[in-house]
């Protein structure tokens, strides 16, 4: 580790409990204190998460780091880096390597398990994200890569793995031609030639900002409908095989909606899945722009049972919160960078997503939409804290009728995934905070409280408590902080707890998966028969940058299962997946067992294809009924790519959700 490093020991859990006694820092000891500066000007700051963020407001508390088994020191890399977190950021970056296309699809039992998979756990971890970013020498940005769904089906203490590309209409076209043909949101280079002509006359003057559908941003199993979603178009998948069936095959895949949704419990005890679409026309209303927001609700059978549309001024939103009576969107203070359209975009010096900038002349706004009744009035509550927010934790209505809104906030506008997907530890690095807003529904004002300055993102709670008073959340968090305030990469999983009517965390635990391992988005799995909110497990995929048995440049992937009530003890099971899986975007936990081992129909089709193989890679294709044999792709260049999240000129908000 670098000089004066302040990160927790390999594979640790750092823990904070209110009123714990403060202790002096000791390198490698079991107790450490936050913000004690070590050599080289680096501090314990980020790695040692504490409740006392501000000495003037809160009492300092101690942090215990519990070390879990690791490799002997002589097996670990010992070279020191000159820059803070240099090796950590290099290791983290290896999780964004492109895979070589259809030949990479795989399935099989997970045979390497450390610990024991809980026998009572039944369901499937589903993940989706860009996985292939290069064709014929053309390299795209990470978020523009072709989506690959990964599933780990759990039952009877065993796990079955699958990974399969989402076969959108654009994927099939480009696969047949062997090259990219469609423009994308986050890549400056354009496969259309001449790019200047297309971008000026087709995109800008013609207003056609349609972009490639890559099916890469989320995957959800609801009402017996398994669906992969990109920025607005869902594709139904075969729940047994993950094969792409297509858009319009079920209610959930028949309407346009973003990759963000909420599941809520109705007063009668039934469950709903709520999805939304936010389309913006920035040229309407005399240049002020107009947004049309549409909220859809699907019952437990996957049928659409509610659709409500609203118009309001143009805005950029990314996620939503749903309470008993409201849909709530966080309107970020941005504006279009019109000069960049003609000085950068048309010359391929910027991508569509980079055509925006901060709007410092207005505050962020909460847009509040009635969920019930006949009213279509949209209420607006300005926030007293200038920030951006993309992924929200949860929200609920308190006893006074006000709304509690918890989210991960950014103090400055940044191309969102630059700090997450392409950080360098210098200009780009995680800098988020955990925040709570209290929205006064009478005054229509939102008051901000900082819960934690630990960079955090991709939050999750128990789905049984969505839209209701809750206590526990689980997040992806950064590890380490320099004295200058530079944070390390996203690496750990954190459990944070506060009372529904509180404004301070009373409990915060962080689990670091390993010295060269990086946890992805967490999910909560309730224990069957459990009654406590946190009675269950936290599951996540973990990128391993130094897997000694890797066949993919030292990369590997694990799935971890952690008892949520014993977070500090680390995983009860680590499952080594049979192949490397790139960092994904979003996913979900399906309480139904899907994508398990092949059934007779699939086995028969696979046998037929192998008989016809002729040395070519096989895939069951876009249709479950039509086997297809594909030429084996040439090895892809493994490259890291910059990704951003923002919006363009017309329909940008829709594109980027």
Largest sheet: 7 strands, antiparallel
How many helical elements?
7
Distance between the termini: 38 Å
Unreliable residue runs? 1-11, 16-81, 621-657
Going across the major beta sheet, what is the strand order?
Answer: 2-4-1-34-33-31-30
What integer value in Å does the Rg equal? 24 Å
- By DSSP, the count of extended strands is 42
Strand content: 35-45%
Shape: globular
Estimate percent helicity: under 10%
Structural class: mainly beta
Topology summary:
Elements: E1 12-17, E2 31-32, E3 42-43, E4 63-67, H1 86-93, E5 106-109, E6 112-115, E7 123-132, E8 134-135, E9 138-139, E10 146-155, E11 158-165, H2 169-177, H3 195-205, E12 218-222, E13 225-229, E14 234-237, E15 244-246, E16 261-265, E17 271-281, E18 290-298, E19 304-313, E20 320-322, E21 326-331, E22 334-336, H4 338-343, E23 356-358, E24 365-370, E25 379-382, E26 388-397, E27 403-410, H5 416-421, E28 432-440, E29 445-452, E30 456-460, E31 472-478, E32 481-482, E33 490-497, E34 507-511, E35 517-519, E36 523-526, E37 536-544, E38 556-563, E39 571-576, E40 586-590, H6 600-611, E41 617-619, E42 628-630, H7 652-655
Antiparallel strand pairs: 1-4, 1-34, 2-4, 3-32, 5-11, 6-39, 7-10, 7-40, 8-9, 10-11, 12-13, 13-14, 14-15, 16-17, 17-18, 18-19, 20-21, 21-24, 22-23, 24-25, 26-27, 27-28, 28-29, 30-31, 31-33, 33-34, 35-37, 36-37, 37-38, 38-39, 41-42
